[in-house]
């Protein structure tokens, strides 16, 4: 290449400068001014989509899973299954769904929280049914195998010459297959026996019954009583009975509940207030919800529903309501089917059965406002059928009506209509019943008893001055018998609270169409000792007045003394004095009553004998059910029933609780503080429900844990070094020596051996713990190495 001279280089530079100056945009190039930083160059992605791992949030409710989301610009693709799980409607599409293209769906990517937030229409979200917390949760009832004998022996001696002893007895065998019982009375007359009074044993009822909790059905065989409607009658029969039994489920409410529907824009809570008092509080998600809460109410009231969202915003809505326990919930049914031989001369003869008969009723909730009722019964020569219903009249009460037709020698009919309405301070109930002359049923046909031709009754209660002014009650009753005789009664009552827990009661009764009336004024004053004092004045229909005073105290359920002292001053003085002593094995009572020239003395002994868990127990009379607590032979262990101290276990570790209500879950607990230190209890309380007419064994198993607190010393009587290995050879457990040479071992046997690993060899020691297992932990000191047991390491 030829080398340029300096003159040539200067000429070239000058030529380039002139060319630049002469360019069209050169002036603008040199004149440009910058008043801001130029934009950064845009980063180019090597791909059009990328994957994010996000939480889906639909109408404020986050999902509990993280899902992959493909992002393509402003579009987000999510698997169809994840969308369906979160109530996003995708119209049957599958695979990846572009949520940004779904109609009625708003989407937003929250990069801070790593969430894909979507908003869908409220009607896409599922309906939430909030039934609230039941006051009584369902607890399956239990029954152990056992025998029970109830007895109540009553003796009376009167100055008029009558003296007798009557002993009521019940024998009961119970278990998982039900309860078989027999009741009767043994009567012995010592003097003054009347012609129609019978000596010896008189049987009342023999019955086997079993309750199916799952289906709420009661099965009975023996002497049964059929159920009845408000417009039919019950009858005693010897036979079979199958019926609905709602009592086995005390947590179940059979009548329609409060039903209120709303919509929540965001997750939050809903609170329910009944007549100004908070009844329940529940959490809700976004979307529609239905509230059916607080079943234990009846009558009219006002419910206030307060919804609070996640941002603290509240919406309050008041809804008037009327709840009637006469109705059945929609779809719920009640029935009773009974067949057998009619029972005659009950309480007079032990076994007097007549013609075969059958009876049946059926109720069904067609909806929450109407309950249908059917009834049929019959015996040879008689058929009867009827239909009725209960209707909710909006918020203004319940209307009931029924019609029945009987056919025997002649046909007859019966019509019934009734109405009821209740509020917190007002209650009204009315019923009219009309029967034709030839109407009859299985309980009265071919007997001396006749049904009334007409019956009217009306009751009214109200608080004219509010709750503090007391409650006024009015009643009217009009009955026309089969012979057209008529009885009309009217009554007036007023009751109110006075100071403390004392109360005032006033009553006036009159038979319309007759002269005179009777009235009563009474003041009741409870005392701190558990006793109560009552005093009052009573007027008879004939116009005679008597002053009465009564001082009484009921014997405590857990045992103790009770008494009753009464005196009345009128045409003749009447007095009464009795006392009762309730102890754990029985209740003994006795007293005297009558007038000064004619008094009677009486005595009573009642209780129960129970055989269960291979032991015999004497206790107070068991009216319903009972619980037997066992602590595996440990005595003097305190037992509580529903948080109340009941007593302590006996020498065999048993305590019997005889006053339990069947089907209701009860809390039973023990206090383990008085147990030995080496006793271990896996549980100290239990929630138990007992079957009707039976008892159950509640065990609190107590296991013995033998423990040892050892001190290990060396030959100089100094504690072994901390961390020295120790092994118990029988159980195989290992531990280390702690400070002061202490070693704690648990779960030991009666005979034990430890091996201590020392640098110079192993040290062995044997020790024993009391085999009874009811002593405190063993405290012992061992010296290592022990020349008699040391082993040299190889």
Automatic annotation (TrEMBL):
Annotated GO CC locations: cell outer membrane
GO term, biological process aspect, one: pilus assembly
PapC-like C-terminal domain mapped to chain residues: 710-769
Segments traversing the membrane: none
UniProt GO MF annotations: fimbrial usher porin activity
PANTHER family to which the protein is assigned, alphabetical: OUTER MEMBRANE USHER PROTEIN (PTHR30451), SLR0019 PROTEIN (PTHR30451:SF5)
The name this protein goes by in its record: Fimbrial assembly protein
Organism placement in taxonomy: Bacteria, Pseudomonadati, Pseudomonadota, Gammaproteobacteria, Enterobacterales
